[in-house]
Specification:
heterodimer; A: about 600 residues; alpha/beta; 5-stranded mixed beta sheet; 4-stranded mixed beta sheet; disordered N terminus; B: about 240 residues; alpha+beta; 4-stranded antiparallel beta sheet; about 30% helix; globular
Chain lengths: ~600, ~240
C-alpha cells in the first residue's frame, strides 16, 4: 500500500464527494480546467486535474489538494479559481485565506496532514479515497490496486486466503462484527453450488455515509475484495446491493465493474487463472430493513424485503437457498489490503478483539463534521474532541449516539470508552455500521429516543409482532411523555416492553430497536423524570413542557429577543428588562438563540 | 437424538422443529401463525421458548428452530411467560375484536388495556398466513402492503381483487377470523367481491364459486362431468373403492 504517493507531476485533486459536489465542486473543476486549457503552451508545467471521492472533511468543503506541494484548500468557491490558478498553480504561492484553520491549535495549516483532523486517523479502507479518480481504473492500479488479487490467484490457495483473513481478526463492518474469515470458512465448507458473494451497500442509518463514500470514491477496492472472497469460497456470481438513493455510487461502481471486465479482472478465466466471476449491481428497494442480510437477499430474489429467521445461516442457505457470503462495503474494501500486506500487519492495528480500523461518519453538534477512519480502540473523546474539534458554539457535550437508529446514546462519563465492538456493546450501544451523532446540551434525550423509535416504527418491516407492535407502543408512550402526558409507571412499562422486543423479535432490527430507549433511560433517567413528574423538559425542546422566562438580572435590555420573536410575545416597559407574555409565546426558541447574555431561561410547562 | 422439553425426555430427529417434537409428546405451545399446511411463518412469535445449549440460554421461536444438538427446552419459564403475556397484550391492543385473541388474553390473565390506544374494530394480527395461502393456491390476489406500523393486508389498490377466485383459503387459514366471508342466496362475498356459487350435483348444496371451479379445472386439467362437494366426493371415492 502506498501511503504517501506524491506524484512528481503537478496534480490538483478536487473533491467530488457528495458533500463537495453539492457545494459546486464540479463547477470548480470545470472552471479550473478551462483556465488550464486556455493557458495552453504558455505554462511550463501543465497540471493534471482530478476529481476524487470524499476527503472526509465535508464541513469544510469543497476541498482541493495541490500536489506535490500538498497544499490543502477548503471552502473553495468558484470565484477563487482565478486566484488559485494565478497564484498557487503558476507561482507556487499559498493563499492564506483558503487554508484550513486547526481549531485545536488556532493555526492555519498548509497541508491537511498537519491538521489534528487527519493526523490522528489511519486510513486502510479509505486508503485511496481523495487520492484517486474513482472513474479511472489506472489510478487504482497505480496505487497497487489488484496486486492482492494476483497474489491470491497465483500464490495462494483458497484455504490460505481464508486463513489469512481469519488470522487478521477482521470482523464484519456492517454492524454485528461477525468474524469474516470464519464466515468464509463456513461457506467454503458446504459442498453445494452455485455459491454467491454479496456486497451490502444498503446504508440506511440517518447521518451515515461511510459506505457511500467508499462506493463513490474507491469502487475498485470493493470489487477486488469481492473477487478474492469469491475465489476463496468458490463463488462465481456476485451482487453489489446499493441503496437506490445513492445515484453516484451506482454510477461509479457500474463504471468500475465495466472497467474490471475490460481489464480481465472479472468475467471468464480471470487473468488466465481459470477462475470465473460475474458481478452485477442490484439497486435497493428503498427500505431500511433491506440492509438486514436476509431481507436483502429476499430483495435480490425479487420478493418483499422481509427477513427470515437465521437459525440456519446464510453461509449454508442464503440467496436462493445456496451458500452465500454477505459482507459490508467496508469489510470488502479491507480484504485486498489484508491479502497484500498480511494478517500480521493488519492485526497489529486495533485492540485485542477488534482489529484494524473503522470508518465513522461524524455528524451532529461537532465542529469537523465528516468522514474519518481511526484504529479500533481510540476513545470517543479523541474522536469527538481531537479529530472532531469539539462542540461548536462553546456548548457542552451531552451524548454521542453510535450505531445508527438502533444504537445507543453514550453519556459524557463514558467518553474515555475505547471504540471497539465489545466496549460499545457493553455500554448498551453498538458499533453498528459507523454512524456517530454528537449531541450537545440543547438536546432532549427523551425526544432523541422518540425520534429514533419513530424512525424504526416506520422502517420495521412489520412482519413480527414484538417489533411492529412493541415499537409502536413504546413510541406511543414516548410521545405521551414528550407531550406532558407521561405517567409514573411508564418507565417501568418501557423497560418491560423493551425486553420483549429485544428478545422475541425476528431480526436484528427489532432485537436492537429498544437500544435508544434503554440507554437514555439508563444514562439520562433524570430527564425522563423531569418530563413525567415535574412536567418540564430540561433542554427546552419538548414544546408542551417548555416555557421561557427572561432573567431580569441578566437582561441588558438590548431588545434583540423582542426583534427576533415571530409571535410578538416579548415586550418591555421603559427602563425595565424585557418580559415574555406566555400566552403569546409559541416556544420557538428564537429569543434563546439570539440572546448573547444567556438571559433566556428554560422553565417547565407554562401555567394555566 | 434426545432432547429435554420442560424436563421431559423426548426423541427428536435431526433438523426437526421443536414445536413438532413438543406436539408429539403432548406438550402444548401456543401458536397463531403456524399451520401444518403452511409452516415456517414465524411472525406472531407466540411460540417462543427458551433453549439451553452449551450453558447458554436463548429465546427462539419453536416453530422454526431446528433441533441439531441435544438441547434443553423450556416452554413455560418465568421469562417466556412474561414475554408471551406481553406479546398477547400487544396483539390484543392491535386486534381487540378477535375472539381467539380474547381467549388467549383471559388464559394469560392479561388485564384490560388502560395504557395503549386500542385499535377499534380490528381483528387482523398481520401474521401473513392469508397471503401465503393465496400464493399456495397460485392466485396472488392479496398481499401485505406498506411496512412498519402502517402495514396491512390488502388486494391491489384496496379494490375488490380482480384475480381473486373466491376460494376462501385466506379466510379459512386466518387464525383470528379477520377475513369476512359471507354466503347467501347462492352468492359468496369476500374482499368486497361477489361470486356466484355452484351446487353439488349430488347433494345440491352450494360449495364453490364458479371462478374457483374454472381455476382448478384449468390448473389441474380436470375434465369435470359432475360438480361434487367435498363430502360427496369422499363418499363417491369410497364407494368406488369398495365396489
Amino acid at each position: 500500500m502506498v501511503e504517501d504517493n506524491m506524484p512528481d507531476k503537478k496534480t490538483v485533486l478536487i473533491c467530488c464527494g457528495t458533500g463537495c459536489l453539492a457545494n459546486n465542486s464540479y463547477e470548480i473543476y470545470r472552471e479550473l480546467k478551462k483556465r488550464v486549457e486556455a493557458a495552453g503552451e504558455d505554462i511550463s508545467v501543465k497540471p493534471v486535474l482530478k476529481t476524487t471521492g470524499c476527503n472526509g472533511l465535508c464541513e469544510k468543503g469543497p476541498v482541493i489538494t495541490i500536489l506535490p506541494e500538498d497544499i490543502f484548500y477548503c471552502k473553495v468557491k468558484i470565484s477563487d479559481v482565478d486566484e488559485i490558478f494565478e497564484k498557487t498553480l503558476l507561482k507556487g504561492e499559498i493563499i492564506e485565506r483558503l487554508l484550513y484553520l486547526d481549531i485545536k491549535t488556532g493555526k492555519k495549516v498548509k497541508s491537511h496532514k498537519e491538521s489534528e483532523f487527519f493526523k490522528r486517523q489511519k486510513k486502510i479502507a479509505l486508503r485511496n479515497i481523495g487520492q484517486i479518480d474513482p472513474a479511472n481504473i489506472e489510478d487504482y492500479i497505480q496505487r497497487e490496486g489488484y496486486r492482492a488479487l494476483k497474489k491470491a490467484l497465483f500464490e495462494m490457495s483458497p484455504d490460505e486466503i481464508i486463513n489469512e483473513v481469519e488470522k487478521s481478526g477482521l470482523r464484519g463492518r456492517g454492524g454485528a462484527g461477525f468474524p469474516t474469515g470464519y464466515k468464509w470458512k463456513q461457506a467454503k465448507k458446504i459442498n453445494s453450488f452455485p455459491k454467491y458473494v454479496i456486497c451490502n451497500g444498503d446504508e440506511g442509518d440517518p447521518g451515515a455515509f461511510m459506505d457511500r463514500s467508499v462506493m463513490e470514491g474507491d469502487p475498485h477496492s470493493i470489487i477486488e475484495g469481492m473477487i478474492i472472497g469469491a475465489y476463496a469460497v468458490g463463488a462465481q456470481k456476485g451482487f453489489v446491493y446499493i441503496r437506490d438513493e445513492y445515484a453516484l455510487a451506482v454510477k461509479n461502481v457500474s463504471r468500475a465493474i465495466k472497467d474490471a471486465y475490460g481489464r480481465g479482472f472479472l468475467g471468464e478465466n480471470i487473468l488466465g487463472s481459470g477462475f470465473n466471476l460475474d458481478i452485477e449491481i442490484v439497486r435497493g428497494g428503498g427500505a431500511f430493513v433491506c440492509g438486514e442480510s436476509t431481507a436483502l437477499m429476499a430483495s435480490i430474489e425479487g420478493r418483499v424485503g422481509e427477513p427470515r429467521v437465521k437459525y440456519i445461516r446464510s453461509t449454508e442457505k442464503g440467496l436462493w437457498g445456496q451458500p452465500t457470503v454477505l459482507n459490508n462495503v467496508e469489510t470488502w474494501a479491507n480484504v485486498p489490503v489484508i491479502v497484500d500486506r498480511g494478517a500480521k500487519w493488519f492485526s497489529s492495528i486495533g485492540t485485542e478483539k477488534s482489529k484494524g480500523t473503522k470508518i465513522f461518519s461524524l455528524v451532529g453538534k461537532v465542529n469537523n463534521t465528516g468522514l474519518i477512519e481511526v484504529p479500533m480502540g481510540v476513545t470517543l473523546r479523541e474522536i469527538i474532541f481531537d479529530i472532531g474539534g469539539g462542540i461548536p458554539g462553546g456548548k457542552k457535550f451531552k451524548a454521542v449516539q453510535t450505531g445508527g437508529p438502533s444504537g445507543g446514546c453514550i453519556p459524557e462519563s463514558l467518553l474515555d470508552l475505547p471504540v471497539d465492538f465489545d466496549s460499545l456493546d457493553k455500554a448498551g450501544s453498538m458499533m453498528g455500521s459507523g454512524g456517530m451523532i454528537v449531541m450537545d446540551e440543547s438536546t432532549c434525550m427523551v425526544e432523541v429516543a422518540r425520534y429514533y423509535l419513530k424512525f424504526l416504527s416506520e422502517e420495521s418491516c412489520g412482519k413480527c409482532t414484538p417489533c411492529r407492535e412493541g415499537i409502536r407502543r413504546m413510541l406511543e408512550i414516548l410521545e405521551d411523555i414528550c407531550a406532558g402526558k407521561g405517567r409514573e409507571e411508564d418507565i417501568e412499562l418501557l423497560l418491560e416492553l423493551a425486553e420483549t422486543v429485544r428478545e422475541a423479535s425476528l431480526c436484528g432490527l427489532g432485537k436492537t430497536a429498544p437500544n435508544p430507549v434503554l440507554t437514555t433511560i439508563k444514562y439520562f433517567k433524570d430527564e425522563y423524570l423531569a418530563h413525567i413528574k415535574e412536567k418540564r423538559c430540561p433542554a427546552g425542546v419538548c414544546k408542551e413542557l417548555t416555557s421561557y422566562r427572561i432573567n431580569q438580572e441578566l437582561c441588558k435590555r438590548c431588545g434583540v429577543c423582542a426583534k427576533k420573536c415571530p409571535a410578538g410575545a416579548i415586550f418591555s416597559k421603559p427602563k425595565s428588562p424585557y418580559v415574555i407574555d406566555n400566552n403569546k409565546c409559541i416556544v420557538c426558541g428564537a429569543c434563546r438563540e439570539a440572546c448573547r447574555f444567556n438571559a433566556i431561561e428554560v422553565m417547565g410547562r407554562r401555567e394555566g | 437424538m434426545k432432547i429435554k422439553i420442560d424436563g421431559l425426555e423426548c426423541e427428536a430427529n435431526y433438523g426437526e422443529y421443536i414445536l413438532e417434537v413438543a406436539k408429539r409428546n403432548g406438550i402444548h405451545i401456543p401458536t397463531l401463525c403456524h399451520t401444518d399446511a403452511l409452516p415456517g411463518q414465524g411472525s406472531c412469535r407466540l411460540c417462543i421458548v427458551e433453549v439451553i445449549e452449551g450453558g447458554k440460554n436463548k429465546v427462539v421461536v419453536s416453530c422454526l428452530y431446528p433441533v441439531t444438538n441435544e438441547i434443553e427446552v423450556l416452554t413455560n419459564s418465568d421469562k417466556i411467560r412474561r414475554m408471551r403475556k406481553n406479546i398477547i397484550r400487544l396483539l390484543a391492543a392491535r386486534a381487540p375484536e378477535s375472539e381467539h385473541i380474547r381467549k388467549l388474553k383471559e388464559e394469560y390473565k392479561v388485564p384490560e388495556e388502560k395504557r395503549f390506544n386500542v385499535d377499534k374494530g380490528e381483528k387482523c394480527i398481520l401474521c401473513g398466513l392469508c397471503v401465503r395461502a393465496c400464493e399456495a393456491v397460485g392466485v396472488y390476489a392479496i398481499s401485505s402492503v406498506n411496512r412498519g406500523i402502517t402495514k396491512k393486508i390488502s388486494p391491489p389498490f384496496e379494490e375488490p381483487p380482480e384475480d381473486c377466485i373466491g376460494c376462501g383459503a385466506c379466510a379459512q387459514v386466518c387464525p383470528t377470523g379477520a377475513i369476512a366471508l359471507k354466503e347467501f342466496e347462492g352468492k359468496r362475498v369476500i374482499w368486497d367481491k361477489t361470486f356466484e356459487l355452484v351446487k353439488c350435483s349430488v347433494c345440491g348444496n352450494y360449495f364453490a364459486t364458479c371462478e374457483q371451479y374454472e381455476f382448478l379445472k384449468q390448473k389441474y386439467g380436470l375434465e369435470a362431468e359432475e360438480f361434487l362437494c367435498d363430502k360427496c366426493r369422499k363418499k363417491s371415492t369410497a364407494q368406488k373403492l369398495i365396489f
